[in-house]
Amino acid sequence: MQAIRSILVVINPEHSESLALKRAKLIAGVTQAHLHLLVCDKKHDHAAMLSVLKAALLADGYSVTTEQAWNESLHETIIDVQQAEGCGLVIKQHYPDSSLKKALLTPADWKLLRHCPTPVLLVKTSTPWKDRVILAAVDVGNADGEHRHLHTTIIDHGFDIASLAKAHLHVISAHPSPMLSAADPTLQLSETIEARYREQCRAFQAEFDVDDEHLHIEEGPADVLIPFMAHKLQAAVTVIGSVARTGLSGALIGNTAEVILDALESDVLVLKPQEVEDHLVELAVKH
Predict the structure, then answer these.
(1) CA dihedral sign, ordered 208, 265, 235, 130
(2) Domains, the chain, ranges and CATH?
(3) What does residue 50 show for φ and ψ, rounded to 5 degrees?
(4) pTM score of the predicted model
């Protein structure tokens, strides 16, 4: 987060109070990042509004540029501009879709989470971050190279947000329920699973300097437990990873990040493994 030099802020002209801009100002105020304000609209008639926003931000000491653009769809427009401007973070306000609309069409924010090569902060509330909990969700049971890198990214961003917002970082990790059909009898006993899992957690805690008070280990599906714990802790931001599935598998299964997006009451920062980011950059360049 501290290394981000430029932030793309998606402005919705229909909403006068931009929650995305509010969060961008908080982050840029600490990191000195440049703000690039984007209105995604075919009509291109928001120059006056962008001019007013830019003048106010310049007067407050921010570095800022503005743009109006449209390229076939909302998520494609955002990614095109993100690539062209070299922005290291995209901030957008999230507007939930109806269940019917979601059943028929993939929500624009899901597409943005799947295809955007950089971290995406979806803003859902106007609640201040200061003195609140930042919740980082990791899968401690997965310790392969890709997950380890993703864990590091999630925890680093969690600590960064907690630091810049003067908030407190907590970590949640969901572990699977016992499987009665498992060939390995140790996987049938919840005590054995939890003991093995806590062992992995101790190694994780030592590596990332997270004490017992700030680590929450729960049994069950992540898409249920993460929103539950975020609500319980009154988290201001939930930091999660996405494997960025695309194509048919993505449409049918959905990522945990997508499934819990509407269930979470907090802002959501979604990160991807480095390999996925690199692949998405390639796709964006070819596009």
Answers:
(1) positive
(2) 6-93 (3.40.50.620), 133-286 (3.40.50.12370)
(3) -65, -35
(4) 0.88
